[in-house]
Amino acid sequence: MSAAQGIAGTLHAERAPASKRIIVGYGFWIFLLSDIVMFSAFFATYAVLSGETAGGPSGKDLFRLHITAISTACLLLSSFTCGVASIGARARNNAMYYGAMVATAVLGGSFLVLEVREFAGMVAQGAGPTRSAFLSAFFTLVGCHGLHVSLGMLWLLTMMAQVFAKGYRADILRRVLCFSLFWHTLDIIWVAIFTVVYLMGAAR
Amino acid sequence: MSDIDRTLHDSDIAPGDERADSRAIVVGLYGYLVGLGLAALLTAVSFFIAGTTLVWQPSIPIALFVLAVAQMGVHLVFFLHITTGPDNVNNVLALAFGVLIVLLLIVGSLWIMYHLNHNMMPMDRIMQMQR
Description:
Oligomer: heterodimer
Number of strands of chain B: 0
Structural class of chain B: mainly alpha
CATH topology of chain A: Four Helix Bundle (Hemerythrin (Met), subunit A)
Number of strands of chain A: 0
Largest sheet of chain B: none
Order of helices and strands of chain A: HHHHHHH
Strand content of chain B: under 5%
CATH class of chain A: Mainly Alpha
Radius of gyration of chain A: 21 Å
Radius of gyration of chain B: 25 Å
Shape of chain B: elongated
Structural class of chain A: mainly alpha
Mean pLDDT of chain B: 83
Mean pLDDT of chain A: 90
Helix content of chain A: over 70%
Number of domains of chain B: 2
CATH superfamily of chain A: Cytochrome c oxidase, subunit III, four-helix bundle
Shape of chain A: elongated
Distance between the termini of chain A: 64 Å
Number of domains of chain A: 1
């Protein structure tokens, strides 16, 4: 019997094509990795330029760590609610899916509001992206992440509308899967940002 | 033969393609809760260590780096479900390649730029030569 299972296992590995859900997830994962490679170029730029303040303010003067802590909590919780939404979609549970998606949108929106206020405050005190190489690199890196979160918010609302209009169809569920992968990846990039930019910058 | 065929057929339904029942919901929620707890713990330790004077100061950047890598691992496993399962080999290999490129890019840039800075003539000397 165990020999038969062994043969079956071999046959499965050689013959059975992977499900469409796994292939779509793999393709989207490749895209996400290319996005991470793009971010790594911005990280390298920031790491090289982080000391070049040209006599202007440094991270230690500009960063408010309690604000960063709140936005980090928002994004981490939104990653959790996004996971809950993906379970709700798989279970075809309307309350769970829509509730968790709305919570994700609220938390992601709070993150964006905090970030825009931080940027506006820095520009208002003369620390805009044109002030020094350090600030150019800072606004490029953190702003690019913020842009991704904004696009993710649009995608989030689109997925709520699509499930509402078309129901839990297999292709819609694959899009929800891709969206949740995208949102979780943004949180991974934020981990790198709050460590390298904010915590190390404030300690410098 | 029919036994093998049935095994093939059953294993063709990938986990997640069938509608999740209440047990799958509980298991899934538990996974995300564990991930959230671990990630929140690592984040809290990062913020605590960055502001504390309790530990030896030169060790702080290294501790922050280790904590960040650990938290990325937690996110990958509990949120993105990049695991060592048989249907995940492609994802893990792609991740390994991505990490290689990221390391080459960041370490390479820092290495080259450090040496350029090191070998460059100080700016005031260049100014003097141009007079």
